[in-house]
């Protein structure tokens, strides 16, 4: 997959069509100071904008392989276009994440894009690891790295809320002890 070309194509089209979106997933980690391999591009997008998103992706040769109330997945037959996943923002927490997203540089500053905050990335990782235990170790490693990269700058109250939603407050306490004083 040509990540830079796909990201540039999508960002330009989303901006042109006034689609509310933010980068999440592996590339959001990179924009937040922690790099790891990724196989796709992940976005958070306003649910009501998803028909426009789908139209753009279909027009560029993608196929919708999964669509539900909460997520959509698009894949291209062309390997350079790869896979693009969307989390639909339609609940309180994801809507707030879209509102808090900040512009960051990716690909050495060649693309400027809205990215969810480190706290919101952590919140999404807490959710995914709670919903899919097979993701637990990878997501927890990502959470630890984000907490180290943003020590002293994180909104611990928001982190407590995210961990509390899934009954995982003790894990956060251990992470806070292990990464030093992040407040």
Task: Kindly describe this structure.
This protein has about 180 residues and is of the alpha+beta class. The chain has 2 domains: about 1-115, Beta Polymerase, domain 2 (2-Layer Sandwich); about 115-183. It has helices at about 5-15, 25-30, 50-60, 90-100, 120-130, 135-150, 155-165, 170-180, and strands at about 20-25, 40-45, 60-65, 70-75, 85-90, 100-105, 110-115. A hairpin with a 4-residue loop joins strand 6 and strand 7.
Descriptors:
183 residues; alpha+beta; Beta Polymerase, domain 2; 5-stranded mixed beta sheet; 7 strands; 49% helix
Write the layout of secondary structure elements.
Elements: H1 3-16, E1 21-24, H2 25-31, E2 41-46, H3 50-59, E3 62-67, E4 71-76, E5 83-89, H4 92-100, E6 102-106, E7 111-115, H5 118-131, H6 136-149, H7 156-165, H8 169-179
Parallel strand pairs: 2-5
Antiparallel strand pairs: 1-2, 3-4, 4-5, 6-7
Arrangement of strands in the largest sheet:
1-2-5-4-3
Instruction: State the total count of DSSP E strands.
Output: 7
Topology order in helix (H) and strand (E) letters: HEHEHEEEHEEHHHH
CATH class of the largest domain: Alpha Beta
Radius of gyration: 16 Å
Instruction: Tell me the span between the first and last alpha carbons.
Output: 39 Å
Low-confidence stretches: none
Strand content: 15-25%
Number of domains: 2
């Amino acid at each position: 997959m040509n990540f830079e070309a796909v990201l540039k194509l999508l960002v330009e089209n989303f901006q042109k069509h006034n689609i509310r979106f933010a980068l999440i997933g592996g590339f959001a980690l990179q924009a937040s100071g922690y790099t790891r391999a990724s196989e796709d591009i992940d976005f958070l997008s306003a649910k009501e904008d998803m028909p426009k998103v789908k139209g753009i992706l279909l027009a560029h040769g993608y196929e919708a392989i999964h669509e539900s109330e909460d997520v959509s997945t698009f894949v291209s037959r062309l390997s350079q276009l790869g896979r693009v996943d969307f989390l639909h923002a339609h609940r309180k927490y994801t809507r707030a994440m879209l509102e808090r997203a900040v512009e960051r540089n990716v690909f050495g500053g060649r693309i400027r894009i809205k990215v969810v905050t480190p706290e919101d990335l952590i919140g999404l990782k807490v959710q995914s690891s709670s919903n899919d235990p097979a993701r637990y170790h990878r997501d927890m490693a990502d959470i630890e790295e984000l907490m180290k990269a943003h020590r002293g700058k994180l909104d611990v109250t928001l982190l407590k809320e995210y961990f509390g939603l899934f009954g995982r407050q003790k894990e956060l306490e251990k992470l806070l002890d292990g990464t030093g004083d992040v407040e």
